[in-house]
Amino acid sequence: MPRLRHHCMAAVLMCAAAGCATRSANVAPQPDDPARFAGWDCERLFDEADRVQSRAAEVAYAVDERVGSNIVALGIGVTVFWPALLAMRADGPAAKELAALKGSHEALQQAAQRRGCPPPPAAMSAARAAMLPLRAGERFVYEQRAGRGAAPQELGLRVTALLRDRIEFAPDLAGRPLPGPWSQDLAGNVRPDSRAPLMSWRHLIEHDLQLGQVLVGDLYAADRGVDAPVRVRGQVVAQGVQVIAGRTFDVAVLELFGDAPSDEGGFVRLSGVMAVDRASGLLLRLDLSCANPAFAMRRRLMRVEPAAG
Fold it and tell me: What is the spatial distance between Cα 264 and Cα 237, in angstroms, rounded to a whole number?
């Protein structure tokens, strides 16, 4: 009996810590009328469904982070994460937004069925691809320095595929191909299936970044053999159109700060700046300062090479 009371008390404390949040499976979709999508062609329906699911993934991770369970962190891309969303906990404003997103998703599915749309293709639609500042086959060339005073190296990311939920690159460093592919979602977060040994970030950037927006995510120093990520916070401190390497980008600048582990134990301060293209998530600049050399680096876009042939 004492053991039972102990378990019950532990459950009560856990519930209190998590706020007894309602599982999102119990959040009913907010009704949405498929008729409002009448007249939309299949590509437009597919694109809107992608947008809805991408936003739902961001809300899901934010709520998941708040309750500390990291359930949705396993989701990879809009085509597979939706079932995982049902395991997420949500309440308050997040639950309302999820209800609206789930309702829109159902309405879009019904509209696509009524129109007789086939399964959505893996490739990004031509209309969406035309709105991005990059094309398949182009090589984006960065100057990369691993820490203060280090010699620069040339990092190349050649666009190999524009897909509905991600962009894939073939990476090379100092002329040597790296294991790949290097894959990012359309907000700019590097996906867990990327294998190239490079500094990367996950769950940090959201779609449609706005001035003053606060973000939370993880930095991974795979190129320095560090497996554990560093949690960082960011804030959008500037936004606007800029020409970089002869290409026009809609830029969002993020100020980053966090704490990295120290070789002597404890933690040391990490700070930096990241600039990304808001339309594609393409990295334009990353400057990190930290006493831990694994998290001190610079990466800046220098030029864009056209597709071969």
Answer: 33
